[in-house]
Amino acid sequence: MTDNQAVQSLTDAWTQSIESITELLAALPGDSWNRPTECPGWSVRDVVSHVIAVESELLGDPRPIHSLPSDLRHIKDEVSRYLELPVDKRRCHTAPEMTSELEYVIIRRSRALRNATTAAEDVVRFPAGPYSFDLPYQRLLQMRVLDVWVHEQDLRRALRLPGNLDSAAAQVTRDLLLLGLPKIIAKQAGAPAGSVIVFDVTGPLEFLRTVRVDENGRGAIDGQISLGPDVQFTLDWETFLRLACGRVRPEALPAGALRVDGDDELAARILAHFAQTH
């Protein structure tokens, strides 16, 4: 796949996922907008507000002027405070206002993405106020696909409308989350040199991946089958996603959702550091 094809593929994945969100909202009863999601402190309305806010900021729109209440318990640091401001600003918006704004943002962002002449490896700025950073354009697109699709799944679980677990955006998300496993296992969980950790994931997007820690303590991932690993995790794709995105704690999973074989202490350390996003 060429760089141009990769950019187009990511744009298509983003489009399919964010348009799926608009379809979910089209016939949503008014009281469902306040239904809680697995994002701490965020309702269906809040998740949609966040998607609107980030895409608006990428378009260069000014952030709203607003003061946050002081009693929001899910605000843990300055980054979460930054993300919360445009969400809280929209908590008084009606359902038609929310859907109209989302649709307008999608139209504008789709046009901007379609007309962009940025190459995959060109360095661009991710606008986030004091938390802005530079990254390759392709990685920015990957991050937006992941964020929009993960929030699509937050909405689907809250509304009990499952779907798109094997979409193109789901595959982009899987690949990004897998990239983080070697660091989690080798560095954060402190798996010793020579450790072999296997993830056997079933469901709509099934995969088998092995993380190996070399003699220098560096982790690497491959798709080879390993007999007798130090730890093997067996779980379905949605459970993997919820754990990796900090949507559920391992101890809160229903019985049978996660099977762990091997070194229980090492497995516990890996699971304690498993969440890559929140």
From TrEMBL:
Q: Can you give the residue ranges of the MDMPI C-terminal domain?
A: 181-269
Residue span, Mycothiol-dependent maleylpyruvate isomerase metal-binding domain: 15-156
Q: Which GO terms describe its molecular function?
A: metal ion binding
Q: Mind telling me what this protein is named?
A: Uncharacterized protein (TIGR03083 family)
Q: Which source organism does the UniProt entry give?
A: Kitasatospora kifunensis
Q: What is the lineage of its organism?
A: Bacteria, Bacillati, Actinomycetota, Actinomycetes, Kitasatosporales
